[in-house]
Design a protein that fits this description.
The complex is a heterohexamer. Chain A is an all-alpha fold. Chain A has one domain (about 1-185). Chain A has nine helices and no strands. In chain A, α1 runs parallel beside α8 (about 125-155), α3 (about 30-65) packs antiparallel against α8 (about 125-155) and α4 packs across α5. Chain D has one domain (about 1-210). Chain D has helices at about 1-10, 25-30, 35-60, 70-90, 90-100, 110-120, 125-155, 175-210; strands spanning about 155, 160. In chain F, a hairpin with a 4-residue loop joins β4 and β5 (about 110-120). Chain F is an alpha+beta fold. Chain F has helices spanning about 1-50, 170-195, and strands at about 55-60, 70-80, 85-95, 100-105, 110-120, 135-140, 145. Chain F folds into two domains: about 1-50; about 50-195, no CATH class. Classes of the chains: A mainly alpha, B alpha+beta, C alpha/beta, D mainly alpha, E mainly alpha, F alpha+beta. At the B-D interface, α1 and α4 of B face α4 and α6 of D. β2 (about 115-120) of chain B pairs parallel with β1 (about 5-10) of chain E, so a sheet runs across the interface.
């Protein structure tokens, strides 16, 4: 269990090693607070999505032989889930909504979440393992977001060469963060 | 065949649930908000990719409607979306177009430096630690704080050490006027005609002005005397034109011994290209 | 005696040896003076004389109503020749009254007053009428400082004189310890402080014996102590001095009185004593004239408004013109570089440095290498490197959080910076802009 | 015809989804360790985009505004599933090496963006041009990045040995950090080119103005 | 009489003698003993490697800055420092072209891309080494016995490699011909062992480090924190703490890499946490990770955290805890009235 | 209001139903091919181990692995003409960069008939060389890393850097894969024991080579 978690969090980091969720990674890291909010929102929805999609696959789609509807059903479920959560938070937990809810619309198209729900199935994880995996992946996402936000904060006034300003330097920075993350490889055997 | 039947049943169920949810949401989501937000939101692709730096299309639409964000940040939608959004939020045209005019002619050659300034290359920094890097305490410092603050790319430092206004781009927003530590910019209607003195030196001692700058107003009041309409008066040591009376005859411009007089419509706004290259 | 100090700071080369042994020269024979109308921190004054008027030495020539104003007096007897804008030692052109000495010897001092016998209000009124301001730097009206709204436990005489080159305070401590001690006692009397401290940096330890003797002889029984401090810049900063002497820190945005202290400059104390004893307004002051381009460095007392260029023309100060690279009014760490030396000595001019081209060497700003020297040296324990970064980025919120408004502009960070970044200048601009911004916001909030 | 050509061209260069719009990045980096994957991914994307746009465009008048998002998702998901199944059936190797990234086409911002911004408003033929342009624009960048990474990281292009035998592959380039860096360089190259083009345009415009004056 | 040739500057008008260039020069001097010893151990190939790496660093900085039309900056000597550091943490047998490639990567990607000296968020030399390790894993993990020349016959494993493969300290001692474990410690301290060019002599590296400490170029917090926590966590994870310090590049990293101005936190508390994090990661990677040595990655990982550690600022002079909103709200209301 | 919701629901339902049914058809069309692919893939790799095999019986449930760190994916009893040839086991375990899957064949002689590294997430150029057919641990005999196991007896020590040559600079990968091979071969051996199949005459033993 710890292994699944550490591998998902550090060794096979969803952003840095697996290139998932890059859109929001670039878009939402201009500020550390923002990246933390986004990260926790993703964590929340990923776990929720896993908790819904895993039983759906195991108890509905697979027995009915509807495995081919996986993509369609999962994306619809996640999209509806996000809407539902957004609505619920807005109405009942306005404090949390203010902190997290504004990031929810972005999450529908966050490929990390969809990828996690697919991988839970294809890796053959049981329910608990799936939850652990989804927490690991999404905290890995949060970690990568926060680290890039830190680097961005650090370089925001640097005399970066004109041709690298903007997105290129973010990816160059990500490259170096990924190099540092290579150090975690093999940490869990 | 069985699979297809199951599929049909399943999809019908799915669609029903979705439809119900959707209707439910629509009903519950009736939150009062700026119709402009909805309009902008409608023009956006709805990909919710976050590429704009705002949390989702809704967040961006709100920012645009509140004028906190420009219309061109949606990368998913591309130029078409940008145009549509820009059209929606298009800032209402000013009743009168304004432009910014620099009231200083103290070019590098004409205005003497007071000393060799070393320090941060901004007008404000220079003024704070030296009073003025120029011998003239009112003159343009020439570090281009105004250029840096202009959002419309309408200002550029000329080779002569003075900023040049591109009147095709200037919107008269007044940012430069606010930023300039010497308060050298006047915001005037673009349609204004008449004479203006391109100097802000208020030193009453003629000799001091002459020592400091060859293009300074030396308070000779020749303009006041020559004006056939009697529309020029000295205010706080600087001649001021009454545009209600000024006929733009140009006599004051001709008479001015230090050539710091100019006509707004020709000398200032009319020669933008020449000025930049000069 | 325990040697005290504050946290942070730096040790710029002192260069005091050129003048520290030279007695004060009294150069009172100015032929003409240019007296700036506004020499204090506060509301502007109106001239009380007009061109052509005859004035006496000590005659009030400019004043205004209002708490934060201090009158200005003629420092020579003669005729008002001009009232016009002239460059002042802060590099700004301001109205100045030019008085030409006519050889007459008219004196118009106030009546002597016993500061220890009169009421507090009388004393404060006298201090204001005598035109006394803080003579160390900003020129803060002394009568305002001596009327604090909080109880004062300690009066500190600022004998740190931490700026390189300057030795005038040291000379005053050696030559006039009695007047100085009397000034401390007088201040204690006015603010009702039970204790006084004369704080002296170690490099002036030779003045201590004289001071202690004076305390015994002229202290009138007041509890006055002489305290040695480690030689370190900016020990003479009010806040640093308080924390060095008392260990307490002036709260952010607060004043010395918030920790029960009043800090007075040596020159101010002596001027106060003269204002009571002789009724003599603040019409002359002591200063150090030094720098490598000055062939005759000296400690002098001159009438306020004396042009340094006049001193040079009269041969009282020798300048090696070919060598001259920079003229500084004040010390090298916090003074102002001026474009020439035809500038009058003001109430707050503690020195004029005629710096040689070699000393005036300046450097190009390089990029920050994040060595952290500025943070270790900062006397306010701010993070100049991060503050600079925030200012360059225009991140006002962060700048305020780091403590932009707490910066005392002592210049230590710029001094130690190996990349020669103009930290202090940027902070000065930043403070100005941030204050303006806050004012604007406050206005908007009121609306 | 010219109009269609312009729409097509826009996607390839001026509004290239990866380089200019910088969306749909995830798959672009993940699958570009070799050229085959790049081609496969690019074509799969083009397929899904083409059919989704066409279908949406056909039905654009009957899709109610408030239900458009779920419908778009359904359509895109359907075509993604189709390409996923087809690839599993006929290109098992390719399908395996791209793994989860084929199903993830469904959340690719490019498709969603184009469907919403273009297909829901424009005619079918325009949509064909647009989707092909966007798809090819996506594909060529993918192949370009893949070729670069494969060449330096493995010494081959599309599986063929290109570098001399003595060449020691620089593994960095096929590892994740290399992917990020190569992509950064591609975007910067593009920004640089764009800057130069703008400068040239401005210069010629200025010249024209001068002549006119 | 305005003479307009005088300098008008903002105060202060004086500067301390230390300049960027002098600081970099001090680092170079501090590295010389270790460099010299490395060349003594591995001969001409090591010398050539050092020269090639330094030359490549300087040349790439010059060329890159010329290409982007930025002001020239090699005068600050920082490129030499980067090149030298990179050479010293590479195995002596590294092919020259690889080392040059690594140097170019260090300078161009890790440093100049981010705006040059002081702006780089990651230690350039370490990025260069990680890049090479990643790209050419076999070449960068081939070690040679000291004093036997760079020949195939002299390849060996470093003491850390041996331990990672399960050898006991006594085995290692036998392998390097040090007799007992005590002899091993002494031999490691003096530096007669296989490893990167500049890291092996703890004695000479420490002399360099103490030289920098004495000059005030570096502060003691980071080296002490790194060395202390490495020993502590090594011990906690069941490794020999003294051996952990003496083997590999811990001391070199603690003095020369972890103290890099640009990539380490500025504040004392930040520095302490940063150093402790490095020590913890070194021990973890050595014990559990995929590499026998973890200094490079430990420092790189902590580099990422230094923007956050910078927030742990010292309380400023006269700091007053922010007042509660209720208190400030009341006067505001009064003012509004 | 209600009517609106119903209308929306109907349109959605129409799209969903159309899409799903369409998918069902595509699925039916491809299902067979995908199954064939998977079987073909398995057959190919199994045949690589046992070239003369004709039939593979799934006996996954009958094998138990002693090492909990290694997970058995599948196991087959390989037969030819009704007579068993050996057992093929597909097992996975953690390696350097993640899960590595290996297919191991064990002949009746209790010797390894062959090894295939099916999937690895280890570092390309290093650990991943285990699955590269052109990477040789012994360059002279052109033996690949999995190739060197062929012919090894169960009784051999299976210790990396002793009787097993490691992949350069990838000792961890080498050890991890060796562990998976050893564990699955042991389980297969035990199963052969259990179904009481005596090793045939030594003359046939070379068949796996």
């Amino acid at each position: 269990m710890t292994k699944i978690f550490i591998i998902a969090l550090l060794i096979n980091n969803v952003v840095l090693m697996r290139f998932l969720a890059l859109c929001s990674y670039v878009g939402m890291t201009s500020d550390v607070g923002q990246s933390v909010g986004m990260g926790f929102a993703v964590t929340f929805v990923t776990v929720l999505a896993t908790a819904v999609t895993w039983p759906l696959q195991t108890f509905v789609l697979a027995p009915l032989g509807l495995g081919f509807l996986q993509i369609l059903v999962f994306i619809l479920v996640i999209a509806s889930l996000v809407q539902l959560v957004e609505f619920y938070l807005k109405k009942n937990v306005p404090g949390l909504y203010a902190a997290m809810g504004i990031y929810l619309p972005l999450i529908t198209t966050n490929c990390a979440i969809l990828a996690v729900t697919f991988e839970n199935i294809s890796n053959g994880y049981n329910f608990i393992e799936s939850i652990v995996y989804s927490v690991g992946v999404s905290l890995g996402y949060l970690l990568a977001m926060v680290l890039l936000a830190g680097v961005r904060d650090r370089i925001k006034n640097s005399p970066i060469p004109a041709f690298l300003k903007g997105t290129p330097i973010l990816f160059a920075a990500t490259s170096l963060i990924a190099i540092a993350f290579m150090g975690f490889s093999g940490l869990v055997k | 065949m069985m699979t297809i039947l199951i599929t049909l049943g399943f999809s019908a169920l799915l669609a029903f649930v979705l439809g119900a949810l959707l209707g439910f949401f629509r009903e519950k989501f009736k939150v009062e908000r700026d119709p402009l937000v909805d309009a902008v939101r409608g023009a956006l692709p709805g990909a919710n990719c976050g590429g704009c730096g705002y949390p989702g299309c809704d967040g961006y639409a709100e920012a645009v409607a509140a004028r906190r964000a420009g219309p061109n940040l949606c990368s998913a939608g591309g130029s078409k979306t940008a145009e549509a959004v820009a059209a929606l939020v298009g800032v209402a045209a000013n009743a009168e177009d304004l432009v910014s005019v620099l009231l200083c002619s103290g070019t590098k050659e004409k205005a003497l430096d007071k000393g060799a300034y070393v320090g941060i290359p901004t007008c404000r920094g220079a003024k704070l630690s030296t009073g003025s890097t120029k011998a003239c305490a009112w003159g343009c410092q020439g570090f281009g704080d105004c250029v840096a603050v202009c959002k419309f790319d309408a200002l550029a430092m000329g080779d002569d050490g003075l900023p040049k206004v591109d009147y095709a781009k200037c919107t008269g927003c007044g940012m430069c006027a606010e930023e300039c530590p010497q308060k050298l910019f006047a915001i005037v209607p673009k349609s204004r005609k008449g004479s203006v003195v391109l100097c802000s030196n208020r030193n009453v001692v003629k000799a001091n002005v002459m020592k400091a700058c060859k293009a300074g107003c030396i308070k000779c009041e020749a303009c006041v005397k020559i004006c056939p309409e009697a529309c020029i008066a000295m205010v706080n040591g600087i001649p001021v034109t009454d545009y209600a009376k000024c006929t733009s005859c140009g006599k004051c411009v001709e008479k001015c011994p230090t050539k710091c007089y100019a006509l707004l419509e020709t000398d200032v706004m009319g020669k933008k290209k020449v000025a930049v290259n000069a | 005696m325990a040697v005290k100090s504050f946290r942070g700071g730096a040790h710029p080369p002192e260069r005091k040896d050129r003048t520290s042994g030279l007695p004060i020269e009294y150069l009172r024979g100015a032929k003409s003076v240019v007296i700036p109308v506004n020499q204090h921190f506060g509301a502007p004054l109106q001239p009380l004389v007009k061109v052509g008027d005859q004035v006496k030495r000590g005659q009030k020539i400019a004043d205004a109503d209002g708490r934060m104003t201090v009158p200005v007096h003629a420092s020579v007897a003669g005729v008002v020749k001009k009232i016009e804008p002239r460059t002042q030692s802060n590099n700004v052109d301001g109205p100045c009254i030019v008085v030409e000495a006519d050889g007459s010897d008219g004196v118009d001092f106030l009546a002597p007053l016993d500061g220890f016998a009169c009421t507090k209000d009388e004393a404060l009124a006298r201090i204001r009428e005598a035109g006394i301001v803080g003579m160390g730097g900003a020129g803060f009206p002394a009568h305002v400082k001596l009327a604090p709204s909080k109880p004062i436990a300690l009066v500190i005489a600022n004998g740190a004189e931490c700026e390189p080159y300057l030795t005038i305070d040291e000379r005053v401590m050696i030559e006039r310890p009695g007047d100085l001690v009397e000034g401390v006692a007088l201040t204690m009397k006015i603010v009702g402080a039970p204790k006084g401290v004369i704080a002296v940096e170690e490099n002036k330890a030779h003045a201590v014996a004289g001071l202690e003797k004076a305390v015994a002889e002229k202290g009138r029984g007041f509890d006055i102590e002489v305290q040695l401090l480690k030689t370190k810049y900016p020990q003479g900063g009010e806040k640093m001095l308080i924390s060095a002497v008392t260990g307490k820190e002036v709260p952010s945005g607060g004043l010395p009185m918030d920790v029960g202290c009043v800090v007075q400059n040596i020159g101010t104390l002596v001027a106060m004593v003269e204002a009571f004893r002789e009724g003599k307004p603040l019409i002359e002051r002591g200063l150090t004239i030094s720098g490598a381009a000055c062939a005759s460095p000296k400690n002098v007392v001159v009438p306020i408004g004396t042009l340094v260029s006049d001193l040079v023309a009269e041969g009282k100060v020798e300048v090696t013109e070919a060598e001259l690279g920079r003229v500084i009014f004040g010390g090298p760490m916090m003074g102002t570089a001026v474009p020439h030396y035809a500038i009058p000595v003001q109430k707050n001019t503690s020195g004029v440095l005629l710096v040689s081209k070699k000393e005036a060497e300046h450097y190009v700003e390089h990029s920050c290498i994040r060595c952290g020297r500025c943070m270790r040296a900062c006397s306010c324990r701010l993070s100049p490197a991060l503050l600079n970064q925030a200012l360059v980025a225009g991140d006002w919120e962060d700048a305020e959080k780091i403590g932009l408004l707490d910066c005392v502009e002592c210049g230590t960070c710029s001094y130690v910076c190996p990349a020669r970044i103009q930290l202090v200048q940027r902070f000065r601009v930043g403070k100005q802009l941030l204050r303006a911004k806050k004012q604007k916001e406050a206005q908007n909030a009121c609306k | 015809m010219k109009r269609l050509w312009n729409i097509f061209k826009a996607g390839i260069i001026y509004e290239n989804p990866l380089l200019m719009l910088m969306i749909g990045l995830c798959s672009a980096l993940a699958v570009t360790t070799n050229v085959q994957n790049g081609v496969g991914m690019g074509l799969a994307m083009t397929f899904v985009m083409l059919f989704s746009e066409v279908i949406i465009s056909i039905f654009r008048k009957v899709i109610p505004n408030s239900a458009r998002m779920p419908i778009f998702i359904i359509v895109i998901a359907a075509f993604t599933t189709i390409i996923d199944l087809v690839m599993k059936a006929y290109f098992p190797e390719l399908s395996k090496s791209m793994g989860v990234f084929i199903p993830l086409i469904v959340v690719n911002c490019i498709i969603m963006g184009r469907v919403e911004a273009f297909a829901s408003k424009e005619k079918v033929l325009d949509c064909v041009a647009d989707s092909l342009g966007m798809g090819l624009g996506y594909t060529w960048v993918l192949v370009g990045i893949a070729a670069f990474r494969e060449l330096l990281g493995n010494g081959t292009v599309a599986g063929l040995q290109v570098m001399p035998a003595g060449f020691e592959p620089i593994l960095f380039f096929i590892l994740p950090p290399g992917g990020f860096l190569v992509f950064a360089l591609f975007i910067s190259l593009n920004i640089w080119l764009k800057g130069r083009m703008q400068k040239a345009a401005a210069k010629s415009a200025a010249k024209a103005e001068e002549v006119a004056a | 009489m305005p003479a307009n040739n005088l300098l008008l500057s903002s105060s202060p008008h004086a500067f301390a003698p230390a300049t960027t260039r002098k600081i970099m020069l001090a680092v170079i001097i501090a590295l010389l003993p270790a460099t010299g010893y490395g060349i003594y151990l591995y001969g001409l190939p090591a010398l050539i490697l050092v020269i090639a790496t330094v030359a490549a660093s300087v040349a790439s900085e010059l060329l890159f800055r010329a290409a982007i039309k930025a002001p020239r900056s090699v005068g600050d000597l920082s490129a030499i420092v980067t090149g030298l550091l990179l050479a010293l943490i590479l195995p002596p047998s590294t092919p020259i072209w690889m080392a040059v490639l690594g140097a170019v990567f260090s300078i161009v990607v890790a440093k100049e891309f981010f705006g040059g000296l002081g702006a780089n968020p990651f230690n350039p030399a370490l990025i260069g080494r990680a890049f090479l390790l990643m790209s050419f894993p076999a070449a960068i993990t081939t070690w040679h016995k000291p004093l036997q020349g760079i020949v195939d016959a002299a390849t060996t494993a470093t003491p850390l490699n041996l331990v990672k493969q399960g050898a006991s300290l006594a085995d290692v001692a036998a392998q390097v011909g040090a007799g007992d474990v005590g002899g091993l410690y002494w031999q490691l301290f003096l530096g007669n062992r296989s490893g990167s060019i500049g890291e092996s002599s703890i004695l000479l590296v420490s002399i360099g480090g103490l030289f920098l400490l004495g000059l005030g170029v570096i502060q003691w917090i980071v080296p002490v924190a790194v060395l202390g926590t490495t020993a502590l966590f090594s011990w906690a994870l069941g490794m020999d703490p003294l051996f952990s310090l003496l083997s590999g590049g811990v001391v070199f990293g603690a003095f020369f890499m972890a103290t890099d101005y640009s990539t380490s936190p500025l504040t004392p508390l930040g520095k302490a946490i940063y150093g402790a994090g490095i020590g913890l990661l070194i021990a973890l990677i050595r014990k559990l990770g995929g590499f026998p040595e973890g200094v490079t990655y430990a420092i790189l990982v902590m580099n990422m955290l230094s923007p956050f550690l910078d927030k742990l600022r010292v309380k400023k002079y006269g700091y007053v805890a922010p007042k509660k909103p209720a208190k400030t709200a009341a006067p505001a209301k009064e003012a509004a009235k | 209001m209600m009517k609106d919701i119903v209308k929306l629901g109907l349109i959605l339902a129409a799209f969903a139903a159309a899409a799903c049914v369409g998918l069902a058809f595509v699925n039916q069309a491809t299902e067979g091919q995908i199954a064939i692919n998977q079987e073909k893939q398995l057959n190919e790799s199994l045949k690589g181990l046992f070239p003369e095999a004709e039939k593979f019986n799934d006996i996954t449930k009958e094998l138990t692995l002693a090492d909990p760190a290694v997970k058995l994916e599948a196991a087959y009893l390989v037969e030819r003409g009704g007579a068993p040839l050996g057992i093929a086991a597909k097992a996975s375990g953690n390696s350097y960069g993640g899960v590595t899957t290996v297919l191991v064949g064990l002949g009746l002689d209790r010797r390894i008939a062959g090894v295939r590294v099916l999937d690895t997430k280890d570092t390309p150029g290093l650990g991943a060389n285990a699955a590269v057919p052109t990477y040789f641990v012994d360059k002279t005999s052109k033996t690949t890393f999995p190739g060197q196991f062929t012919g090894k007896a169960l009784s051999d020590p299976f210790v990396v850097k002793e009787d097993i040559a490691a992949i350069t600079a990838s000792t961890i990968t080498s050890k991890a894969i060796t562990k998976i091979i050893k564990a699955s071969a042991d389980a297969a051996g035990a199963r052969l024991e259990a179904i009481a199949m005596a090793p045939p005459a030594p003359a046939d033993a070379a068949g796996g080579k």
